[in-house]
Design brief:
By secondary structure, the protein is α+β, with helices and mostly antiparallel strands. Helix content is about 20%, strand content about 15%. It has 4 helices and 6 strands. The longest helix has 22 residues.
Length: about 260
């Protein structure tokens, strides 16, 4: 009888401790276990912080960026993924990426892009024109001089810089070419007078370019940096009427719209 009573007592004590252990179990939001009222491991429910999602605007969980990356969310946008995403304003450009460039858009130096050759070759891809005509020391209208040779100037797209350098170095006089070669605008010092073909591109894209002259007579045409031979055997730059796209030899002073390449 005594043994039975002793056995019942032991069982009662054991049951008491087991039941107390269950009642006193500590639920923690850092125990690495999905328990209590949690909706995920150590998150959610009434006691823990909300579980990370891919749309909560926070960098949390296994994400590598805000609401992106990791095993659960979509890949984070990059500036070379071939898609317009994230803060981009074009495919892989704008926002947090490099600026978007294209014809009609702002250029690197604050001008307007009027030519895109499609890829970077010879160190450049785009031509941009200044937003206004070249003025220095109060002068808007410029004369030109005649040369004994063509100084190897060219009409082709991409040759205006070399033309301007040759013309600036060919005369000891201060000319529009020497002033253009030393001109600094918006932190850039590589502006030049466009070649005749580059000037034609300006005419073809004039709807994008502000403050162009509408043509006429004196100080309404635009000088190029391409020399052509005139009747006396000398060489002179032609001017363009940007209202028609036609070129002329002219004596009166005319305008310059500087461009640069990048």
């Amino acid at each position: 009888m005594k043994n039975k009573i002793k056995l019942l007592g032991i069982m009662f004590i054991a049951l008491f401790f087991f039941s107390c252990g269950d009642d006193d179990q500590v639920i923690s939001c850092t125990d690495g276990i999905l328990n209590g009222s949690e909706m995920g491991i150590d998150c959610g429910g009434t006691d823990c912080s909300p579980c990370a999602t891919c749309f909560d605007g926070l960098l949390n969980g296994s994400e590598t960026g805000v609401d992106c990356g990791g095993p659960d969310c979509n890949d984070c946008p990059t500036c070379d993924d071939g898609e317009m995403n994230g803060s981009e304003t074009g495919i892989d450009c704008g926002g947090d990426c490099s600026p978007c460039y294209g014809v009609g858009l702002p250029g690197e130096a604050g001008g307007i892009i009027f030519y895109d050759k499609g890829a970077v070759t010879d160190g450049w891809q785009y031509l941009e024109a200044a937003e206004s005509d070249f003025v220095t020391n109060g002068n808007l209208c410029w004369g030109s001089i005649q040369y004994m040779t063509n100084l190897e100037t060219d009409n082709n797209i991409g040759t205006g810089l070399e033309n301007t350098t040759s013309l600036a170095e060919a005369s000891s006089q201060e000319t529009m070419y020497s002033l253009a070669a030393s001109h600094i605008e918006n932190g850039k010092f590589d502006w030049f007078v466009p070649s005749s073909d580059e000037l034609t591109l300006i005419y073809e894209n004039k709807d994008f370019l502000p403050n162009l002259s509408n043509g006429g007579s004196e100080c309404t045409l635009y000088w190029s940096s391409t020399l052509e031979q005139i009747s006396n055997g000398n060489w002179l730059a032609k001017c363009m009427d940007t209202s028609t796209g036609e070129f002329f030899f002219t004596n009166p002073n005319q305008r310059v719209r500087l461009v640069r390449r990048f």
